[in-house]
Hints:
- The complex is a heterodimer.
- In chain A, the strands form two sheets. Chain A has a six-stranded mixed beta sheet, sandwiched between helices.
- In chain A, 46% of the residues are buried.
- Chain A is globular.
- Chain A contains nine helices and ten strands.
- The longest helix of chain A is centred in the C-terminal third of the chain and has 16 residues, at 169-184.
- By secondary structure, chain A is of the alpha/beta class.
- By secondary structure, chain B is mainly alpha-helical.
- Chain B contains nine helices and no strands.
- Chain B has helices at residues 13-51, 53-57, 59-68, 71-81, 91-117, 120-128, 133-163, 175-186, 189-219.
- Chain B is flat, with a radius of gyration of 21 Å.
- Residues 1-5 of chain B have low confidence and may be disordered.
- Classes of the chains: A alpha/beta, B mainly alpha.
- The A-B interface holds A 45, 48, 50, 73-74, 76-77, 79-81, 83, 85, 87, 89-91, 100-101, 104-106, 133, 146, 149-150, 153 and B 121-122, 124-132, 135, 139-140, 143-144, 147, 218, 220.
Amino acid sequence: MIEIRGLEKYFGALQVLKGIDLDVEKGEVLSVIGASGSGKSTLLYCINGLEPIQKGSVLVDGSDVHAKDTDINKLRQKLGMVFQQWNSFPHLTALENVALAPKIVKGKSKAEAHDIAEKQLKHVGLADKLSVYPNALSGGQQQRLAIARALAMEPTYMLFDEATSALDPELVGEVLDTMRLLAEEGMTMICVTHEMGFARDVSDRVAYFHQGVMDEIGPPEQIFGDAKSENTRKFLANVR
Amino acid sequence: MNETISFFSGFNINDLWFLGEAAMRTLWISVLSISIGTVLGGFFGWLLYEGRLTAALTIAPVLDIFRSVPLIIQLVLFYNFAPIVGLDLDPFGSGVVILTIYTAALVANVARGGIEAVERPMRRAARSLGLSYWQDMRYVVLPIGGRAVFPAWVGVALGVMKDSALVSVLGYVELLKASQILITRTQEPFLILIIAGAFYFALSFPISRYAAKLEQRWAQ
Ligand SMILES: Nc1ncnc2c1ncn2[C@@H]1O[C@H](COP(=O)(O)OP(=O)(O)O)[C@@H](O)[C@H]1O
Ligand SMILES: [Mg+2]
């Protein structure tokens, strides 16, 4: 379980998160929507400790992400993350991209790591691309590679930061399908997304962020059908 | 006129051997300086990248000095003043020290550029997988950044090899000094300089060829 309490985040004088309280249960799929600049990405970075926080706390399965004595590299193994830019390692083949972290972080043997990598690449539909370098893959394929790379660490949670925003429209579907598949398999997911169809169909809950505040959170039927917050309704009216 | 009593004598096969040996000394002093200097320069480059302000105020000016003062002046100064502080180095030792520092000063900038070439999102992606700072450095930044600045590094290495000729001013008999000795004796400067040039070319060419091959392979 991820427990966020009174989270405040500043970049210099700019307050980007203004006291976020949020629990994400195991098995839940949470979509996070909101205008650009509302602090959605920053929230994810604070959850896996890529950004320090100024106030409040983030607990992942009871471990405080931002405590000094937490082994953050170990904790991050529970938190897979997929970014807007896929960030494939250009010097490694698809198989090596996925096998790298199991090998050096988890200390798996080369053979074990390659088995894991092969399994995850099959999982995301890239079984025929094992020995291909990223520059020979499409954006959609590279993003699925990034998903496989995160899954290879056997995370409990997956964080998606606008995983489809940088893709050509015709490639969005294959990545969303992979995310749907993970949701069906019971993965706990926090998905920052602009894909309202995905948010509505796949999520258990949807959170709307507005200027660093979580303005509203509820089941998709509420957010998309009967939003309580004026801001939410305005935002949704504009994106549709 | 009897040839044997002449002080001067023509170029012969032994002289070629003599030049060959000198070329090996050029190679040796270069390999040594470039290797140590690269490791040291990598470290300095990392300091410049991570330390930013502190490094900018401390090592950056020192590296600037070594980069901008002509190598021949550094060599002569170091060779003559090192004994005063108790460092009694022969020409070879002095040459290695100065060439190493000179290489390090040049490589520092290359290395910093290499680290900078690996953008923040890439590094965050690596860290998000659980890689530690040093694992990220070793398995992501080094290979990606290293490839990005490899051509620049090759340029530095080839430059240092040519500049190692300056160690001849200290009396170390590397390729250039050996050529000078032979020119004095044989009075055949053109022939000997052409041969010496060919030796330098023979030393650099395989390196640039191999480097080009590597770059080609990485670019696939
Ligand atoms: N590294 C940073 N330094 C300074 N400001 C930042 C940084 N990252 C994000 N911000 C600012 O924080 C705010 C929230 O950004 P972000 O979390 O990326 O929003 P979103 O993902 O919702 O578009 C924005 O105003 C952005 O400019
Ligand atoms: Mg964002």
